[in-house]
Amino acid sequence: MQERISVDEFGQIMETKGWVVFPSALDEHFVNELRSDCLKWIDICQSMQIKNGVNTRGDGTAHHCLGANDSIDHYIDMHLFHPYISHYFGEQPYICHSLTPIGGFPEMTTYVHKLHRDVRTFIPGYPLKLNMLVMCDDFTKDNGTLVLSGSHTSDQPPDEKEFEKHHERIVAPAGSVLLFNSLLWHQGALISGDKARVALTVGYSRAWVKPHMDYARMLGDEYGKTLSPLTRQVLGYNARVPVSLDEWYRPTEQRLYNANQG
């Protein structure tokens, strides 16, 4: 892994540019495992999508793929970028807000190919959410994600012509990791050729923001007991919402929503 920038430099770049790439953050063997598990989960979620009538053939993505004790679980538990993520959120507790493997299959168009930002609430100078993109394949001048630097500082969407003229393309080898402000306007690249461009995307948010999935309840208390304190925090075990008076009236050390979660 290449030498990293300081957290202060990271913070300055995120404030102005809105995104930072950490090249070659993961070794080749682990990246291959991660790629395989992303595709495994996409197959699982495709079956669910078809079964439940969401679509007729899957959309090349999967969601909330935790609990199988595979490389995705292991990656979340590594906390490779914890100092940067913590700094981004003002050293306050944060949680995993979403987790989505993306197949990047050739000629397939999905919601990720639309010009968009991943959070709609705009509070100047107060980051609510952070996006992470783990590159399981090379991101090149042809298939790299498109971003508009600085667009996270405006509450207005960019004109499509402006985006087309000023966007930058993320180019980095497999194993690299992109962190960006979730208010940054970006667009997935259409993939051509015959090879998928697989990526794992993870969203992090402040602990009090409602996540896309209640991971702590999905994974269960027994699973939670096996986790490190930081992984319990990140997976939301310290910011659960009680669903009964019995869960509400508990001693401080047994509370589902801890006092330091914001």
Shape field: globular
**Ends: how far apart?**
34 Å
State the strand order across the main sheet. 1-6-3-8-2
Order of helices and strands: HEHHHEEEHEEEEHHHH
Radius of gyration: 19 Å
Q: Report the structural category.
A: alpha+beta
Average of the residue pLDDT scores? 95
Largest beta-sheet characterization: 5 strands, antiparallel
* Poorly predicted ranges: none
Give the helix level as a range of percent.
25-40%
Number of strands: 8
Which band does the percent of strand residues land in?
5-15%
Total count of helical runs of at least 4 residues? 9
Provide a brief overview of the structure.
The protein has helices at 7-16, 28-51, 71-78, 82-88, 160-166, 215-219, 221-225, 229-234, 245-248; strands spanning 19-22, 94-102, 129-135, 146-147, 168-169, 177-181, 186-187, 199-206. With 262 residues, the protein is an alpha+beta fold.
